[in-house]
Amino acid sequence: SGRFPVVISTWPFEEAVRAAWLAVDGGSSAIDAVVEGCSACEELRCDGTVGPGGSPDENGESTIDALIMNGITMEVGAVAAMRYVKDGIKAARLVMDYTRHTLLVGEQASAFAISMGLPGPMNLSSSESIQKWTNWKANGCQPNFWKNVMPADGCGPYHLQETGNACSKHNWIGETKLKTSHVGHHSHDTISMAVIDKKGHIAVGTSTNGASFKIPGRVGDGPIAGSSSYADDEVGACGATGDGDIMMRFLPCYQVVESMRQGMEPRLAAKDAMSRIARKYPDFMGAVIAINREGVHAGACHGWTFQYSVRSTDMDDVEIFTVVP
Ligand code: SD4
């Protein structure tokens, strides 16, 4: 194909892609379109895992990780573990546009966002997130993110245990078990979106509630440049979703963009980034989308079937692409 403008997003988040398309097709910059698209997902609470009221942590609280990156200047703005403010991508953009920083975290990220005019403080819980958390408690807090540690009686407090003790058969949660259970294929968790605008400029963004039942304070790949997303006008862009605790150890989106810079096709670059992780973590679940500056796109995944959404000038509406491992 090789045309722009074009919008590409993880998962079948059609409404988000339509919102970004409407903006970029109307002449907006790639950055503005990414904000439109990711904000739409946050407002719709895509899959109950983006925006307010998704993926509760161990305390039942929802927090937000988000990032935006400008492929012209390589500027990045991001917020991590942001509380009480629902507008993740807008907060990330405020960091990028109005500060010399890249990443703000926790309550200070919320305070910054509110001081810059975003609504808050507000409770980010929803009836769904409360229900999800209640069910998890009732299920002995399974699955969870502890390893070599076991809860005293089903749910926390968690105590350090010597590994290999007799109780490990019952309650002990090893990493392997966790990996297959915490990001179920039913929940899509994260929007990562790339846009190429009419001038050929590229931007990316990511927004997520992170991982359900995470240990409070956990930050995933979402706000990490090169992990959840990456863009460079000279090359193209990448967006990721999946088990961020594993993926952020590899910076898969940086790898995808750098591979394309060396001349690799988007499809091969995406596959290569997945297999790099899979060599060390054969059970991880994750996916990336890759797009080069000509608008040629591809997806690759590991551990689950993945879908991504595209809208370009040669389409009448958003199209969904399915990728198998
Ligand atoms: C995270 N990458 O915080 C996110 C979650 C996700 O599909 O994308 N799940 O780990």
TrEMBL record:
<comment type="subunit">
    <text>Heterotetramer of two alpha and two beta chains arranged as a dimer of alpha/beta heterodimers.</text>
</comment>
<dbReference type="Pfam" id="PF01112">
    <property type="entry name" value="Asparaginase_2"/>
</dbReference>
<dbReference type="GO" id="GO:0005737">
    <property type="term" value="C:cytoplasm"/>
</dbReference>
<feature type="active site" description="Nucleophile">
    <location>
        <position position="190"/>
    </location>
</feature>
<dbReference type="GO" id="GO:0006508">
    <property type="term" value="P:proteolysis"/>
</dbReference>
<keyword id="KW-0732">Signal</keyword>
<protein>
    <recommendedName>
        <fullName>beta-aspartyl-peptidase</fullName>
        <ecNumber>3.4.19.5</ecNumber>
    </recommendedName>
</protein>
<keyword id="KW-0645">Protease</keyword>
<dbReference type="GO" id="GO:0008798">
    <property type="term" value="F:beta-aspartyl-peptidase activity"/>
</dbReference>
<keyword id="KW-0068">Autocatalytic cleavage</keyword>
<keyword id="KW-0378">Hydrolase</keyword>
<dbReference type="GO" id="GO:0003948">
    <property type="term" value="F:N4-(beta-N-acetylglucosaminyl)-L-asparaginase activity"/>
</dbReference>
<comment type="similarity">
    <text>Belongs to the Ntn-hydrolase family.</text>
</comment>
<dbReference type="InterPro" id="IPR029055">
    <property type="entry name" value="Ntn_hydrolases_N"/>
</dbReference>
<feature type="site" description="Cleavage; by autolysis">
    <location>
        <begin position="189"/>
        <end position="190"/>
    </location>
</feature>
<dbReference type="InterPro" id="IPR000246">
    <property type="entry name" value="Peptidase_T2"/>
</dbReference>
<feature type="binding site">
    <location>
        <begin position="241"/>
        <end position="244"/>
    </location>
    <ligand>
        <name>substrate</name>
    </ligand>
</feature>
<feature type="binding site">
    <location>
        <begin position="218"/>
        <end position="221"/>
    </location>
    <ligand>
        <name>substrate</name>
    </ligand>
</feature>
